[in-house]
Amino acid sequence: MGDAGTVRNRGHEDAVRAYIGSFTSAGGRGVLTAEVDADTGALTVTGASDAVADPSFLALAGPLLYAVSETDAGAVAAFDATGPAPRPLGAPVPVDGSGPTHLALAGGQVLTANYTSGSVTALPLAVDGTVRPAAAVLRHEGSGPVADRQSGPHAHQVLPDPSGRWALSTDLGTDSVWIYSLDPATGTPTLHGETALRPGTGPRHLVFHPSGTHAYVLHELEPVLTVCRWDAETGTLEPLGETPVVPEGTPGPSYPSEVVAAPDGRFLWAAIRGDDTLAVLALDPSGSKAALTATVPCGGTWPRDLTLAPSGRHLYAANERSGDVTWFALDPDTGVPTRAGAIEAPAASCVVLG
After folding, report:
1. CA-CA distance, 73 to 66, in Å (whole number)?
2. Which among 112, 111, 102 is positioned nearest to 164, based on CA atoms?
3. What is the CB neighbour count within 10 angstroms for residue 27?
4. pLDDT tens digit sequence for 292-327
5. 81 vs 88: CA distance, rounded Å
6. Model-level pTM?
7. Burial class (CB within 10 angstroms; exposed 0-12, middle 13-18, buried 19+) of 246
8. Residues 10-57: pLDDT tens digits?
9. Buried/exposed code over 112-135 (b: 16+ C-beta within 10 A; e: otherwise)
10. Can you give the three-state secondary structure of the chain, one letter per residue?
């Protein structure tokens, strides 16, 4: 593995490091650090830390890295990310929820989406960036029509909007997006509203258009993307329509996992686990319409996460079941990914670059 292709440098710098989360309970090495080649996108692993169980999702803030511990107890851990391997900064801090699958930084807090308990937790950060005990736990309520997956709430993601005034949480169990206002002084979230989406679709993750005027919700239980208008003045999310993320006639189930947006707002990419593909969606100039234009193999099996290099030139897929991270060069005109290389990363679940 590691057969990197050559990509012409267009004057942009890719991230110089990548951090890869994994499931230690399935043979993962914990959190891996890798150097990134700015020209080819190639990764070279420099070290790993298994100090935290199942660090399945990561968030980077300068020299600090944060990870959920996706366990029944549920916790957040902080790392010094400056060395060849992540260095833990204190013991993991409980999230007072179960099975956290996602985290994000907002207003001096770490926010976690706790899948099993169906809640969002806010944990303040100390001046040195270490994590303090939970300041708020906000529990979702509701269910959906898919009995074995939607008997109760399952918060899958929590993400601040581009304005920094709001945080949105997709809930697979309630078929909705929960909207929180963020206290401008403390960053603590308060429930503001809930946007219902089509029953049985299972919202998993969302991404904002670079302009901040639209958001795109990817569903896990049906292979569709909901295009929404986002109003940062009022904290209102308005569904506009759905777009398939697999070609017509594709046998299911497909289990979409992650969606990312191009920095220029022209394309979206979605990872499709059941099909082991990456979907390319073209956006119209306003960002209000999306169309599926291509699908390509993900380079492995069960792509759980997708990450775009800051330059917009390379795309990274964390293929959980084949145990690798594959990178792709992106065609600047069509957005179509071309496989450029891969590294071994057992039970890979997340990639962040910075």
Report:
1. 17
2. 111
3. 10
4. 999 999 999 999 999 999 889 999 999 999 999 999
5. 9
6. 0.95
7. buried
8. 233 445 899 999 999 999 999 999 999 989 999 999 999 999 999 999
9. bbbbbbbbbbbbbbeeebebeebe
10. CCCCCCCCCCCCCCCCEEEEEECHHHCCCCEEEEEECCCCCCEEEEEEECCCCCCCCEEEECCEEEEEECCCCCEEEEEECCCCCCEECCCCEECCCCCEEEEEEECCEEEEEECCCCEEEEEEECCCCCECCCCEEEECCCCCCCCCCCCCCCEEEEEECCCCCEEEEEECCCCEEEEEEECCCCCCEEEEEEEECCCCCCEEEEEECCCCCEEEEEECCCCEEEEEEEECCCCEEEEEEEEECCCCCCCCCCCEEEEEECCCCCEEEEEECCCCEEEEEEECCCCCCEEEEEEEECCCCCEEEEEECCCCCEEEEEECCCCEEEEEEECCCCCCEEEEEEEECCCEEEEEEC
Amino acid at 336: V
